[in-house]
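Re: export button greyed out
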Amino acid sequence: MAFYVVQLLTGLASAASLFLVASGLSIIFGVTRIVNFAHGAFYMIGAYIAFTLSERFSGAFGFWGSIVAAALAVALIGVIVEMVLLRRIYHAPELFQLLATFGLTLMVEDLVVLIWGPDDLVGRRAPGFKGAIDFFGQNIPSYDLFLIVLGPVVLGILWLLFQRTRWGVLVRAATQDRDMVAALGVNQKWLFTSVFAVGVFLAALGGALQIPRDAVHHAMDLRIIVEVFVVVVIGGLGSIVGAFVAAVLVSELNAFGILIFPKISIILVFLVMAVVLIVRPWGLFGKPEAPARRTPGLTVNPWRPLTSNERLAALATLVIAATLPLFAGNYALTVGSEIAIFVIFAVSLHFLMSVGGLASFGHAAYFGLGAYGVAFLAKMAGLPMIVCLLLGPLLGCMGAAVFGFFAVQLSGVYFAMLTLAFAQIVWSIAFQWVSVTGGDNGILGVWPEKWAASPSHFYWLALGVAALVTIALRAMVFSPFGYALRATRDSLLRSEAIGINAKRIQWTAFVIAGTTAGIGGALFAYLKGSVFPDNLGISLSVDALVMVLLGGVETVSGAVIGAIVYKALNIWLVSQTDLSKLVLGGFIVLIVVVFPKGIVGMLEMLAQRRRKTSPPGSPLLAKPIESAE
Amino acid sequence: MSVAPPLLAVEGLTKSYGGIHAVRGVSFSLRAGEILALIGPNGAGKSTCFDMLNGQNKPDSGHVRLLGEETTGKKPREIWRLGVGRTFQITATFATMTVRENVQVALISHGKQLFNLWGSAPKFDRGEAGRLLELVGMGGYADRPCGELAYGDLKRLELAVALANEPKLLLMDEPTAGMAPRERVDLMRLTAQIAREKSIGVLFTEHDMDVVFEHADRIIVLNRGTLIAEGSPAEVRSNPQVQAVYLGEGLLYDAEHREGAST
Amino acid sequence: MRARTIFVGAAFALLAGGMAHSAMAQDIKIGEINSYSLLPAFTEPYRKGWQLAVEEINAAGGINGKKLVVVSKDDGGKPADAQTAANELVSSEGVAMLTGTFLSNIGLAVSDFANQKKVFFLAAEPLTDAVTWSKGNKYTFRLRPSNYMQAAMLVEAASKLPAKRWATIAPNYEYGQSAVAVFKKLMSEKRPDIQWVDEQWPPQGKIDAGPVVQAVAAANPEAILNVTFGADLVKLVREGNTRGLFKGREVVSFLTGEPEYLDPLKDETPEGWIVTGYPWYSIKTPEHDAFLKAYQAKYNDYPRLGSIVGYQTIKSAAAILAKAGSTDPEKLIAAAEGLSMPSPFGEITFRKIDHQSTLGAYVGKTALKDGKGVMVDSSYKKGADYLPSDAEVEKLRPKD
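Workaround output, generated via the alternate export path:
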């Protein structure tokens, strides 16, 4: 019995640190609608700074002072980030802020290694909380007890802050209805900045408080960020109490789950999230989101099919791309193949995200399923390559059909999170089911047959498929189905009122996007000759999001450009420097600031401006830019 | 001799929220080509009633029949398929599409081509879309982005969209809300004209009494969830109960219905 | 506009990089790939090790008179990126062979690439047995003692313990799973009387140490096998110490004696664990002294195990290249098979039968000295003594 009590308390201690970070994320999202990917980075910086300070200042005062000082210092960094970076892009398309915070995260991961060195750092134990307390023969670390108390205390303070202060009232009002606060004449800028600072403070505090139990290292952010998102979503976005309950739920399920299924930790949070979202689509304590009102002035130029001149230009670009084998070496061709494959991947997500308005955070699942489909067919059934390429993507199609059915019942961030949960579930199956998938050692020896083996042949294959897929999806954008899909994105209410079964349209789009991603994955398996769980991992899903956002989420062809730029730059940087994350992150942040509509979005704006100022009859000037469309 | 069923027949429609009756036992009917106004003070249950007709909301009891077919509790899209067009109090349009595309989506849906992946949507029923836009006086705006339109034009566009499935019945929730007086008259005149030409039944709710009395063939009046009067504009105008309700509106109903979420 | 210029520059450089071929024909180039950005704590000492080796080799006149050049690439911890890097090294840098890799799945990915493209690959650090056995191939050799060898070394010591009730804690991925499986198998062969009372599988890098420690303690084992490392190990040790998990229990632990993993524990190092590792401070052999002196002189820092592996990887590569007298992969394989050479740990041989080197490891016990973790009572275990019989190896390895 004593054991179960102690296990319960241990779970509560884990919950406390999770709650601190999650509450910060929840507050930030609630008010600013920013999906703050950098939250984990702030958590990590908090731990690093607290480590440095607590090594320097001894004694109890030194230690606790260091913790608080670290959190305050990071909050200040947060304020700077908000004012310098995020403020510029609040009016950018939804999720664009995610791109900015993603770029920051990449930079921070390299920066902490540059500043604090590569080694794991083990900080001091907390003065006064070094030992354990005996509980009927079981030991409970006293620091755990401290955390168990701290969790509810922070919850209480936050509650008072939100209920009893004018600032808190404004924050709650803004969480419910942003426009209303703007209408009340509140200085929104400072409200956002202060909210961001408080959220970051909580994250950094959560990180700083880890130093007596954890090692401080440069991958801490990734370890926590996904889990924290999950907790926030289970609890209900914007709900502090929800974050607390969800943190406790997840931690306790884990503490007791490992007694029965020792391997459950790897997948538990995602299972819980999937179940919660299917049963309660807005999380445990969340409320249905008010239908998003479009910010005035943000109206997008209506999409149009290419004019015949533009078609010619696109064709010419394709022909030029096809001549690459005439002058480039094998390496450039293989890189070219990889880029072509990522174009497929990016346009498939674009179809779902830009055309359908459904931003999937787990799109790599279908890419990876396509790759595994090929690997199974080639290695187990021994089928010829062409058959594998045709049938392999069907695994992605099936996965998308099953998961998509549940996912499209939700929308917005909840949709994103459910897709993430499904992707993680697929990932952990690939990772754990060693007898079938080979686990993380993957499936090897999936090499192309002779006719496609040479780099130039494979390049033509990849380029051809990429071109076909891009054309097909583009044609679909301007098909009756594409119109219906855009209709469901623009107004669900109106769509339903003109007889459109929105869920079925969205489900179909999900399956199309998943199958297309699977085609990319199938080619990728042959390009690399092997398949690994990485191929359906979070980082690949994030890559796809970044490509679409970078290119311009409101454009038809942004994904193509975004994929080419991001992938080429990524490969080049990884080859050139160990600090590729720092440079790439910096580049992304720069793009976000300079091109808040994405690369193609910006080019389109420029082209439009030029079209308006230049006299009629000189459209030739704008041609090179339009060929990007 | 068989009598054709009325276009719309509503019987004993009832809905309550947490013990408060938002709509109680409302019955009425509507003939083809008739323009019927549903009025009542704030909180009278107009919107609740309206939403139960178009499928946004399910009644606790009672029936809605369209051309003799039971539509109670059906989804909005199913009701639309039976030939009901509708407009919203706050316009709902596809902001990133052009005016013509907005109409084309409705035509695509009407033509059951929603899952057509390969056709060309820009060419889909282009002529018909143009005709509908001409009909509502939006012909010159076809290529404009919908998000740029003035509010009155959006209302017209909604009307064109609502007409895309050759409806037998139009449900218009506060069609002139938020419009300038001049535009109101234009829009309702247009609506009435189209309704009479095509023999479409129109049910609309409205705040503006001038609009109501000028354009409605018949008026039904709701108060505190029940039907208190029904008749021609003249009859309703002279109904003492209606007069009492409208004179006392500000005093009585605002206070009483602040809690009830009926409108 | 600035961003656009950067993009154009990047694209241009990519193309140019693809087309540029090595200018210096008289140099011998070795391609090297490792997870520098993902695992800097392990790959930094490794890099220092191989840089030292390159310097020594060139100071001694290079390889058959030609200068040795190592072209190093980061793989970011992703198998797919490692293959891109391998491709670049082979296709556009024209390297004579590939070396490196840390993570098992990356080692396997590069090994498969090498097999497909017929390139010689010397795997430096990946531990999985599959590299030389179940997924072994003609083109792939490995330096570091494999999972199986480390397990066998630990079992030798562990089987002498009186403990009968054992629990295991291992990261939930192939490395952890196969380490536990081999350890269990070899242990049970030697000691049929032992019982396995609990197993914990925390996700790699994400251990929730409190509940894990508590769960293991509840099973009340007499001895514990640990396979976690890095930050997970730190958390496990801290929670275990506070909760008294290790009190009165024997602990056998993979790799914990390597400075990479032991040093961060500082004064919290648990005492008396039986570990494999690298006690650089207590190895007194001429070969190691020479290495240690050179390393400390160059870097003013002590070596980690990674330094040894990095150093010996390039030394081995150079020895193979020198013997082959050619960069032809078939000749390199012929030269490498059965080749013996000196190393800081004594002579090692690349076995013909499975291409595994006989580099060994030190087994000893952890102890606390001046607030730091050290290995005591350590002895070197030759790799050759901890490999299965040739007949068994033949069965494990696919015919090529």
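The longest helix of chain A spans residues 2-32. The button fix ships in the next patch.
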